[in-house]
Amino acid sequence: MIVHGVTPILNVSDIEASCEWCAKLGWKALWRWGEPTGFGAVRSGPSEIFLCQGGQGGRGKGSNTSTFATFEDETKDRGCWMSWWVEDVDAVHAECVKQGIEVTWAPKDMPWNVREMHVRHPDGHVFRIGRGLPAK
Fold it and tell me: Where are the beta strands (DSSP E) in the chain?
């Protein structure tokens, strides 16, 4: 089998609020489906995420304020984790702070050669935003 693309589906509590949250990070709403709307999609460049209100996966925000300080931090949220690859992690961080988006891990050069930060969606989904670093 050869997979030509992957589109994650996030279980969200509110499609419209999730589209607005994604828009703060530069994602554009593509479409919505259902009456009332229960499914939709957002896009950034060639990447898409489907949003499903109340189904197709889990969600749930943990009480943790960091997503990486301890292993326990990584296990509290019940939402999906995914990596987003960007050109400038620090510029994304500055925009997140400006937009009031919850940053749970500030930009840091990690031992696996990635500059990385984390943000958390209101439904507990965690996005690891990173850029590969030059080999040492």
Answer: 9-12, 28-33, 39-44, 47-53, 81-85, 103-110, 114-120, 126-132
